[in-house]
Every structure is written in structure tokens, then in C-alpha cells.
Amino acid sequence: MALTAMVMKRRHFFKYTALSTSGFVLAACRGFNSQNSPQQEVSNFGKLEKTYLTLGYVPTLDATPVIIAQEKGFFARYGLTVAFSKQLTPNDLEKGLSSGKLDGAVAPFPLPLLSQVNKNATPIVSLMTLNLNGSAITLSQKSWTGGIHPITDYYNFREFANTYRRYIRSFNTPPSLAIASNSSMDNYLSRYWLAAMGIDPHQEIKLTEVAPSQMLYKLQSGNILGYAVADPWNQKAVSAKAGFIADISRNIWRGHPSQILAVSESWVNNNPVTARALVAALLEACQYCDVPKNRPEIAQILAQNKYLNTSLLAIEPALLGKYNYEQISENRLKNIPDFNIFHFQETSYLKAPNHVNYPWRSHGVWLLTQMVRWQQADLSEYPVDADKILDKTYPLKIYEEVAKALKIKLPTEPMKKEPATAFIDQREFDPSQPVAYLNRFELRAANPQILI
After folding, report:
1. Most exposed residue of 339, 360, 408, 423, measured as fewest CB within 10 angstroms of its CB?
2. Nearest CA to 244 among 168, 156, 321, 144?
3. 358 and 399 in contact (C-beta within 8 Å)?
4. Domains, in order of start, for the chain
5. pLDDT tens-digit profile of 144-196?
6. CB-neighbour burial class of residue 229 (10 A; exposed 0-12, middle 13-18, buried 19+)
7. What is the spatial distance between Cα 123 and Cα 274, in angstroms, rounded to a whole number?
């Protein structure tokens, strides 16, 4: 397409969106589409309501897209000046969003949905997904001496499950497994993992909220038996020989959402143009992060004191796809190129035009089923107004407008089935049948409740 025609097409698109702005400017730049080919132009979105933003994050690799958007000038490209606010836990992020101290945050996928079902919480929305996969379950040296090894040592998951279940039931009181927050995806994936092994996460394990930066110390002191979190905290335990990787979140649900761009509902209503500029900048950053040749430099950027403040040894395994399960007996490296996906990498569970950043409503449906399963947020049955809740949580129009402007192809439907092969228990998920899906789980809170 000739440059003039492209300019006219972009102007026409933005003129008729619901942005209600004027004075659109076209800025020449170089971006990356989902196939990593250059874009000659990216459009600015009109007059920004806010140009100075404060974004919060917890120092883990999940924050990679916002850090790279800052370092590589993607925020500046859209007229945004961004300051970062490091927080200890996702609960601190929620407080910052609710109080207005934070304009946005790299937040756990469940946080916005939890806020929408909780009538007393400030409504938070998810503008885009920032990454898939990315977490692991680390167990202590005590577990190693107790006869538990990484799942890679076992013939299959069933063999690991039988061994681990016997080990857990050998304790007189339920041992503690740390998670960053009840609003974290690690909370729900850990429950799913334990239940798939026949271990009741309500009765046989104590899930404890601990700040990620404190997890290793708690592990070394013996206060917890293990933890579920994003790196670098898993690899830090491995390198210190304080623990080993029992399993990774990608094995529990291949392609699960991890972190999202969260803003309060009132913020996005007051700043619709800024919201679109923010999504555009982070979309370009996510594309940049998935170019393999960029990953070594990204690791060096993240290791800086002002960001994750840690060694490359703790960062590179998850970013470069050579993950180390343990060093207690020997280095046990496994090639896992999709440990972290930020925009697109073709896998058995991710095929174009599907991509990471699209806010799948079906992911929200799955999360609602697990909230009901474990009676989180006082949910004991699947909400009759689930569609309304999902509409508020995932304002698809914003993302779709930005993606089209950046020439990123969108999925054909906002709901997609997850095949049995995606889950560790080989259980297919059909988002059109959430109650039937729920009733297939024998192990859940208030068992043997049957939902209708």
C-alpha cells in the first residue's frame, strides 16, 4: 500500500472510532507486527487526557513489557511519560489502583474479575494480557530429602502425584505453600495442580500469602514448604540450592494468562485516549519482547538495580528458554522456549491469529468456574449475570481498535475451547458450558455439591 493511501486509511479509522478527539497526528516509527515484520507508521491517538502516568508492578519477570516499553521508547512514542512504582505484593497494586495513586499496573489476571464480583471493591478492568505462562512451583530441600524430585524425574504426572500425595499426608499438620496473593493466578493454578493429584487445597495444604521478595527467605528458614510464583524467585532458590522446581505453570495449563494491564474502571472512562495509547505502547513492547535475538539484552535490562535488582543467572533461564529444575544434585536444564510468551510464539496451543495480548473472555469464564469451585469471593454458584460481569471486566473495544490500528489480526471469536491436552488432568474446557465443567470436578469446596 502506498504511503498516502495508508495515511488516509489510518485517518479514516480514527475519525470514526469512539475516541471523540481531534487533531490526529501520524508519527513515523518502526514497530513489530505479530510476524515481527516492520511497520512503517504507527498512529498517535489524538489529544491525551494525561501524559504523565504512574504504573505499578511487583518485581518479577511479569513486568518485562512495561520495563521494555520504558527502555525502548515505546511509551514516549505515544506521548507518554511514565514513572514506575515498585510494590511488594499484588494486594498493594490493588490498593494503588483503588486509591488513584496508580494510573495502571501489571496485575495478576484474576484481580480485575475479583474486583467486579466483590460489591465492596473498586471496579478494576483488564485492558490487555501481558504474558502467558511464566510461573513455577518451588519446593524446599526438605522435600528433596523427603523423596520428592522434579516432575521431570517421573514417568508421568500420575507417578509424581502418587509420590507427592503420600509425602503431603505424612505431615501432622498441613504444610504451607506460599503464593503472592489470593488474587494471583498462582493461587488458582496451585489449587488446580494439588486437586489434580487428589490433594485437598483447603484441608491438606495451607496456602499462605507472602511477598515474592520474601519467599526464598521463608523457604530457607523452614517457615514454608514451597512457593508458587514467577521468576526470578524460582531460579534464585535453585542457584542457592535452597530448593528445586517441582513443576511449572505451563504444565498445569498450557497457555494460561498470567499478568494483565489493569486500570480502574473510572480511570479508563476518564482517560479513553490515554488508555488506547498505553495499550498501543505495550503491544509494541510485547512484540519486541518475543523477538528471540532481543531476549539476552532484555535480561540485562531487567537485572539492573532499578528494576529487578538481581543476577542474570536468576533471569536468563525463564527468558532464554533453558530452564534449570535443580542444582541440589546436578544442573538439570530443560528446553522450554515457551516458558514466557509476551505476544506470539507458535505452539501447540497458540496459532495465528490468536495471540497473547487479546483479552479472551473464555479465560474469564474459566476463572469464574474456579472461583465457584473454591468459593472464592463468596461465590458458591456460577453467576447468572456472568456475561455482564465479563463485559465490564474486559472492555474488548479498546483493545480491538488499537490492534486494528497496528495491523494486528484479531481472533475470530472472544471465546475459545481449551483442549484436554492443555491441562495437567487432561480435562477439556468448553466456555459455553461452565456449570457442566464445574460439575465434573469431584474435589472442590462444599463437595459433593452439584450445581445447576
Report:
1. 423
2. 144
3. yes
4. 3-131+264-304+353-405 (3.40.190.10)
5. 999 999 999 999 999 999 999 999 999 999 999 999 999 999 999 999 999 99
6. buried
7. 19
> In this structure, are residues 73 and 67 in contact, taking their beta carbons and an 8 Å threshold?
no
The alpha carbon of residue 416 and the mean position of all alpha carbons in its chain are separated, in whole angstroms, by 18
Question: What is the C-alpha separation between 101 and 85, in angstroms, rounded?
Answer: 10
Q: Which three cell numbers stand for residue 7?
A: 495515511
Candidates 186, 211, 190; CA nearest to 201 is 190
Taking the C-alpha atoms of residue 67 and residue 298, their distance in angstroms, rounded to an integer, is: 9
Q: Phi first, then psi: give them for residue 336, nearest 5 degrees.
A: -135, 75
User: How many Cβ atoms from other residues are within 10 Å of residue 214's Cβ?
Assistant: 17
Q: Say whether 451 sits in a helix, a strand or coil.
A: coil
Single pTM value for the model: 0.90
Is the pLDDT confidence value at 15 over 90? no
Burial zone of 50 (CB within 10 Å; 0-12 exposed, 13-18 middle, 19+ buried): middle
Encode pLDDT of 355-377 as tens digits: 999 999 999 999 999 999 999 99
Q: Which of 179, 144, 47, 112 is closest to 371 using CA atoms?
A: 112
